[in-house]
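Example (one chain per record):
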Amino acid sequence: MKKFVVLLSSLLFAASVAAVDCSDCHETIDQAMHKDAEATLATCNDCHGMADAHTVDMELHTPDLTMAECADCHGME
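Predicted structure:
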C-alpha cells in the first residue's frame, strides 16, 4: 500500500508540474534579467502581484525559490 501511495503522489506531482506553462497565458519572461536580479517567488509576488492571480502550493514552494529553480521544474525557456 505504501508503494502505491508513493507512486500516486509522484504521478500527481509530475502532472502538476507539467500542467503549468506560463507562456500559455503570458508573454515569455526575460529569464536572463530575472536570474541576474536574483528574482525569487517572493519577488514575483511583490513586483507582479502573482499571488493575486495564481494559487501556489506553498507546501512545495518557498518564497526564496529562485527564478532558475522555477525554470528548472516548470520547463520555462
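Caption: Residues 2-19 form the longest helix (18 residues).
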